[in-house]
Amino acid sequence: MNHTRAFVVAALSAATVLGSVGCEPYPQGPAGQVVSRDQSHDPATKANRFELTVRTDSGKRRTFRVHVDDYNACRPRRAYPSCTQN
């Protein structure tokens, strides 16, 4: 019975870790002002791709992939990453 209990605990722990990783799949992009957003859909995989483009303090434009929640929170002219902390 102890082996069964240990297995259940290990399985639940793994599920918790994998579940929390799914919420933040992409590294944070550079700080800057959001200048545009792009959303695309791949019909083959039925997956959506969300991207933000920011202008950094040095004036460079950087485009990076974000989670849908960050995409929805960060409209143009808002400061990234502070717009994600609502």
Characterization of the model:
With 86 residues, this protein is α+β, with helices and mostly antiparallel strands. 30% of the residues lie in helices and 31% in strands. It has two helices and four strands; from the N terminus they run H-E-E-E-H-E. It has helices at 2-21, 68-73, and strands at 32-42, 47-55, 61-65, 79-80. A four-stranded antiparallel β-sheet has the order 3-2-1-4, with no helix packed on it. Strand 2 (47-55) and strand 3 (61-65) form a beta hairpin.
Summarize the structure.
It contains two helices and four strands, in the order H-E-E-E-H-E. It is α+β, with helices and mostly antiparallel strands and about 90 residues long.
